[in-house]
Amino acid sequence: MNKVDLSSYSTGGYRPGSLLRRGLWYAVDLVFFANGWPWPSGLKRTVLRLFGARIGRGVVIKPRVQIKYPWFLEVGDFTWLGERVWIDNLAPVRIGAHCCLSQGALLLTGNHDWSSARFDLITQEIVLEDGVWIGARATVTPGIHCGTHATLSVGGVATSNLKAWTVYAGTPAEAVKKRAIS
Q1: Does residue 93 contact residue 129 with C-beta atoms inside 8 Å?
Q2: What's this model's pTM, rounded to 2 decimal places?
Q3: Nearest to 140 by CA among 178, 171, 177
Q4: Cβ atoms 179, 161 nearer than 8 A
Q5: Among 15, 63, 105, 142, fewest CB within 10 Å belongs to which?
Q6: Does residue 44 lie in a domain region?
Q7: Is residue 125 in a domain?
């Protein structure tokens, strides 16, 4: 029986950007995003745009938000990114308008092939349509599409697509009720 051999690990040609671009982003990230200083959201939006992110109007970005690669990020108008949100976007992440990612929410676009001795890297994009709410400490896994106004409650883990106008809870997340907005 084969065993995992991490000494043979390779990203298989995955290239998220030049070393210079990534290095510059990491330095800027430490100043404006990784620390707890409450820099204005407008300044953070500008910085993200300078690194290739497509950021809408009125996006709120709280302290300690982590974004792996801004050039793989698109965020619609008036979306909120809460404290300690982590967008681990090795692949594109598209977040619609009027979405809310609560404190500690995690969007993961990368994983590993557990059946491969080399533990190969796998990346897939994430899409959150308009009005989606990802609760505090909830996780969205690679390749997930959240339909308009879907909700993932606190601590939930989305391992399959979330249907529009539906509230999900648990690990793995299951539909619990329809979302109604008054």
Answers
A1: no
A2: 0.95
A3: 171
A4: no
A5: 15
A6: yes
A7: yes
Mean pLDDT of each 10-residue bin along the chain, 182 residues long: 90 91 97 95 98 98 98 98 98 98 98 93 97 98 98 98 98 98 94
Which residue segment(s) compose the domain that 137 sits in? 39-177
Give how far Cα 139 sits from Cα of 2, 4, 51, 87, 152, Å: 31, 26, 25, 10, 8
CB of 168 closer than 8 Å to CB of 150: yes
Q: Is residue 11 part of a domain?
A: no
Residue 88 belongs to some domain of the structure = yes
Number of structural domains in the chain: 1
Distance CA 59, CA 49 (A): 12
